[in-house]
Amino acid sequence: MRARRTQVIKPRIREILSKELPAGLVNLLPKHWVQIGDVLILPLRPELEPYKHRIAEVYAEVLGVKTVLRKGHIHGETRKPDYEVLYGGDTVTVHVENGVKYKLDVAKVMFSPANVKERVRMAEVARPGELVVDMFAGIGHLSLPMAVHKGARVIAIEKDPYTFRFLVESIWLNNVQDLMTPYNIDNRNFPAENIADRVLMGYVVKTAEFIPKALSIAKDEAIIHYHNTVPERLMPDEPFATFRGIAREYGYEAEKLNELIIKRYAPGVWHVVVDVRVFKR
Ligand SMILES: C[S@@+](CC[C@H](N)C(=O)[O-])C[C@H]1O[C@@H](n2cnc3c(N)ncnc32)[C@H](O)[C@@H]1O
C-alpha cells in the first residue's frame, strides 16, 4: 500500500459529522489526507479548530487508523516534520509500500508520499550484488527497495540516532540484514574510499557540499543519484552543472544519464534528481 492521498470524503464521515457540526462547516471537512501505516495526516482548516478532536476521532474510526495528526512543515537539517496530535497518540507504525516494510515514527521521521516514484525507481535501477552506499539513508527510504527487490548490498548511513533506530528495525523487518549494513554516523566521517558501484545522495538544499565525499566513496567508475533543490530559473542546467564542476575539480568526468523532477519544494523551487555516471580521469 502506498502513502495514500484519498480524493473523496467517505460518505460515512460526512453523515456522522453533518449531525454534529454547524451546516456551513461540513463542506470544509478535509477531502484529502495521507495515510502512513495506521497513522493519518489530516490537513484541517482554521474554521474547524473548535471541532478538531471530534473530527479526528470520526476520521480515525471510519478509516480504521489509531492516530490522527494535523499537517505541519518539514524543516531543519534532519528534515523532521512538525505535527499536532489530534487523536490517539502512538505515532510509530509500519507502512508497506511496493512490498517493502518501513517502520517509522510518523511525527518525527520524514516519509513523503510524493517520493514514492523514486523509491520504486530505485528498486528498478539496482543490480544484484552491486554495492550501494546510501549517504542520507533515513529509514532506508531509497535503499531498502534495492536490497529487498534486487539483492543489492547496501551501506546505509544515517546520523540521527532516533531515525537510525527505525532504519535498523526496518532492515530486520524486511529480512535483509545480510545485505544491509547500517552506520549511525555523519557520512563525512565514513572511512572507506573507492568502494561503491552506486551512491545515493537523497538530500536537499545543501547536497552539493557532499559531492567530494560521494566521489571519494564511489569507485573509479560509478553511478551517483544526486538529489537537490533547484530554483526554476536555473533549470535545466542545474543541478548537473554544479555537480560536473565540482567533479572536475576532484579529477572526475561526469555524464548525465537521466534527470527527473521529484516534487515542488517551495514556490519556484523543485526537488530534482540527476543520475550521473562518474569516471576518474
Ligand atoms: C530528507 S531525509 C531523506 C531520506 C531518503 N534519502 C529519501 O530521499 O527519501 C535525509 C536524512 O539524511 C540524514 N542526514 C542529514 N545529514 C547527514 C549526514 N551528514 N550524514 C548522515 N546522515 C545525514 C537526516 O538525518 C535524514 O534522516
UniProtKB/TrEMBL annotation:
GO biological process annotation, one example: tRNA methylation
The EC number(s) this enzyme carries: 2.5.1.114
Cross-referenced PROSITE patterns: SAM_MT_TRM5_TYW2
Keyword DNA-binding included in the entry's annotation: no
Catalytic activity: 4-demethylwyosine(37) in tRNA(Phe) + S-adenosyl-L-methionine = 4-demethyl-7-[(3S)-3-amino-3-carboxypropyl]wyosine(37) in tRNA(Phe) + S-methyl-5'-thioadenosine + H(+)
Pfam families referenced in this protein's UniProt entry, alphabetically: TRM5-TYW2_MTfase, TYW2_N_2
One GO cellular component, as annotated: cytoplasm
Compartments where found: Cytoplasm
Chief site of localization: cytoplasm
Gene3D superfamilies the record matches: Met-10+ protein-like domains (3.30.300.110), Vaccinia Virus protein VP39 (3.40.50.150)
Its job: S-adenosyl-L-methionine-dependent transferase that acts as a component of the wyosine derivatives biosynthesis pathway. Catalyzes the transfer of the alpha-amino-alpha-carboxypropyl (acp) group from S-adenosyl-L-methionine to 4-demethylwyosine (imG-14), forming 7-aminocarboxypropyl-demethylwyosine (wybutosine-86) at position 37 of tRNA(Phe).
Family designation: Belongs to the class I-like SAM-binding methyltransferase superfamily. TRM5/TYW2 family.
The protein's name: tRNA(Phe) (4-demethylwyosine(37)-C(7)) aminocarboxypropyltransferase
Protein source organism: Thermococcus eurythermalis
